[in-house]
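thread: overnight batch results

M.L. [08:02]
morning all. the overnight job finished for the chain we discussed friday. pasting input first so we're all looking at the same thing
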Amino acid sequence: MFFAWFVQSAGGEPAVSSVKKTSLCILVHRLGHILRWRIVIKKCEHPTRFPYVRGAKLVRPSFVLLVILLAALFARIYQLDTEDLWVDEAIAVSISSNSLGGLLEASLPDGNPPLYYVLLHYWMWLFGDSEFSVRLPSALFGLCSVAMMYKVGSTLFGKGTGLIAALILALSVYHIFYSQEARTYSMMVLLALISYYFFLRLLEGEDYKVLAGYVLSTTALMYSHHYGLFFVIAQTLFLLGFYSLKRRRERAPSLKMWALAGGAVATLYIPGFLYLAYPLTHPEHRGWIEDTVPMITQLDLVSVLHTYAVYAQAPGLRAPKYYFALLMLFAAASAVALAASKGERGKLYLLSLWLLVPIALPLLLSQIVTPLVHARYSIAALPAFYLLAAEGIKRVGRVAMRPLTNGQVPLAALCVIVIVFLIMAFSSLDVLHRYFTTEKKEPWRTVVGDVKPQAKRDDLFIISPELSRFPFDYYASREAFFQEAQEVSLDDREQANEVGSVASGSDRVWLVLQTGDDNEKEQFKAELEKAAFEVRTHKSYPVTHQYGIDLMLFEKK
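M.L. [08:03]
and the structure it wrote out:
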């Protein structure tokens, strides 16, 4: 009953002026389903609409949106500080802890534009740098993204699609994961949605307030992540098709208006070109991409689908394959319906470019220029996929609930759509349950806690790889033992042969390794044993989808 209302009544259709359907009427209607397999309604008005009745009043879309937003808020706040900061988050906190000038300089070798770090810098100045505090902005960005998803969906297709798309995003484990991480990705999704909202508003007519909103949001999107440029390219390609095919509406802005918008964005982004050029000219600062994301030697569809199927799951947690298949099925149904409607092909063109350009263009550039691909970089393309799936759900639901010529609604069709909806709902809830009950990040707090009771003054800490020192320092810097300790970072096996000489002046050495290479662990251990050290303690900390941590204490013989 609620689902039928959700896919039909919320879609901006006029509300029933005087509600004559009572709960008894709906109950009799449902019994007709069970007893006769087909429904014949003669006395109840609007036989294909099943509103959710509360005190003879329809539940409004705004109420459903509020429920969705509350669910989204809970999913993003729940256990926000349960897991420790991992390497990338600790790097973000470290960069944001600098002065504003130092922050802008430190973000260059990090390979990311500085907007997120600037916001986090002032946020930590106000609210501190605890795990909950530094992750809370991302959770709030995620919540606002759900609200903006509704706005964009309503603008494109109506309130029904807006609500369904907002619900899918609210329960998306992939989006929840990055809404609970102190990184830029949640903000990037929000800024992309805001940019596209103002973009759609500009297509309706010239409005300088809307133009200002588009320029500011698009510029902020490009300063949030380098992939923001691909979304601007997608919008530009849409405009080229929009005007070249002479589909321009009478009230649509002139090319001069778009030229003004493009010129303003380009001018505001002039400093950003420095941040864009730096990682391209300094490959040593993006070498991890080549290590963790293999080059796709053939741009085949299977490779692309395999790479981006994570949009239906969370890093390290696989959703049932049929969940992604159902999303793809509904998105395909929506694409076919939009392509068949001459007046709605522009919407398909817009969403297709939004979805495919930030995925296909980096894949292409990776083949001819330099590796650029990582699925999470394209996370702001996620709303386009969900919007297509949401429109498909709404359209399939309407077809299933459409009465036959004799006024009958086939129960079989209703059962099929309800079963599909339940499969998607339970699949999503299953992944959510596993998400909140699985350890996904390295336990650096536990590692430091295990060091604390055994640590002594002047202990030497050798950490490898070098980036692992950021989460270790985040937790260890709060402890008294670390104030007088020495720390050295060595980067992988190539520097392992130096560990003996580095440790030669110390009596006690803590070796903190984060690697999946057992040979590398043995090499570090062998070099210390050559320097007359022996292992006193050794503890391992496995992690689900990342390299675990090994903590070893060595003392001189």
